[in-house]
Design brief:
This protein is mainly alpha-helical. The protein has a single domain, classed as Arc Repressor Mutant, subunit A (Orthogonal Bundle). It has 5 helices and no strands.
Length: about 90
Amino acid sequence: MRKKSVMITLIDPQFTPVNLEQLVASAYGTTPAETRLALALLQGLSVRESAEQAGTTYQTARSQLQVVFRKLDVRSQSHLVHNLTKIFNHSS
């Protein structure tokens, strides 16, 4: 039986590194579009909402997400958010 788990992420709204996109791109080698998608997910948007915000299709966003997963060596959105949260905690 697979155990279900929940991850809760708390983000201090007062804390904003100078350039989040640059921080993620330099840490993981993501393109600007991949970086924006990852940060949108970190902010709690869905993939569909992220695509709409970026003016792309859902399928394009899903493809970008799969590339992000490979670059960050993760297999789920929750793991992606966890890894991004870690770099923000180390950069503060």
